[in-house]
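Figure 6 in text form: structure in, sequence out.
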């Protein structure tokens, strides 16, 4: 008889765990599928005036398109915050930062984001020193780079732009 009660105890424990798992799963499902709460944030109309900005990209983004898309999203948000024609943007890439354009060569989402930024006036400038060091051909290894997008030295370009009144941002 003690064997039977041990069996009943185990069965009861298994059933209890299964019921608990069902309830936890249902709660998680409900939470994930619950209607999203709308943010109650007031609209703010602010005139930011004319801005000139450098986005310096010198990291690889760990070859994660999500992180790179985040950088491009910040740039797009910057354009969205200002009135059309009020933002002069230079995206200067050197070192591992050119991995953005290497990755974009085969990533349609990154291509779309970069093209949209360029259509709004963003200039994507690539350090020639980095290309020479890494033995990369901008025409075949990078997305949408022409000779007019090349700068002799990325860091020198940044310093020159800062002297012209550009602010410096590093996403």
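Output sequence:
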């Amino acid at each position: 008889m003690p064997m039977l009660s041990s069996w009943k105890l185990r069965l009861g424990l298994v059933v209890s765990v299964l019921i608990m798992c069902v309830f936890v799963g249902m709660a998680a499902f409900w939470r994930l599928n619950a209607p999203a709460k709308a943010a109650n944030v007031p609209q703010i109309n602010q005139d930011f005036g004319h801005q000139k900005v450098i986005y310096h990209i010198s990291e690889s983004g760990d070859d994660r398109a999500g992180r790179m898309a985040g950088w491009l999203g910040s740039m797009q948000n910057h354009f969205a915050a200002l009135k059309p024609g009020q933002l002069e943007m230079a995206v200067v890439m050197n070192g591992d930062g050119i991995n953005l354009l290497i990755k974009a060569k085969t990533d349609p989402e990154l291509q779309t984001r970069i093209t949209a930024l360029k259509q709004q006036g963003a200039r994507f400038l690539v350090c020639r020193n980095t290309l020479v060091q890494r033995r990369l051909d901008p025409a075949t290894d990078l997305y949408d780079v022409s000779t007019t997008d090349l700068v002799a030295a990325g860091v020198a370009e940044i310093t020159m732009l800062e002297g012209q009144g550009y602010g410096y941002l590093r996403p």
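Caption detail: The mean pLDDT is 87.
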